[in-house]
Amino acid sequence: QVHLVESGGGLVQPGGSLRLSCAVSGLSLENHAIAWFRQAPGKEREALSCINSVYGIAYYADSVKGRFTISRDNNRNIAYLQMNTLKPEDTAVYSCATDLRFVKGCLTYEYDYWGQGTQVTVSS
Known about the structure:
124 residues; 46% strand; globular
């Protein structure tokens, strides 16, 4: 059984930083893709960043490139999303996702396993 639990969300002022965590059980992040998404009220879910399953290469959406950094701790099986220079438009529920199958195109893949999400609110 694959299980993902996000944490680290909260209220932060514009320009601030947060680090989200995604603890994964049931598969090894070293051998599987991991991705971060967000969904704001009234908007579609947006893929933000991912690490592919073969070479561990990170990919980013243009909206977060240069501000967000994805990483993973293979020993602890936890993925992270470091978010810097946060803006009010970054306010959303942030979720992580993974899959047991080989993932090609980790930003556009339809993942099978999702966490429950963590709220990030950027406001003064």
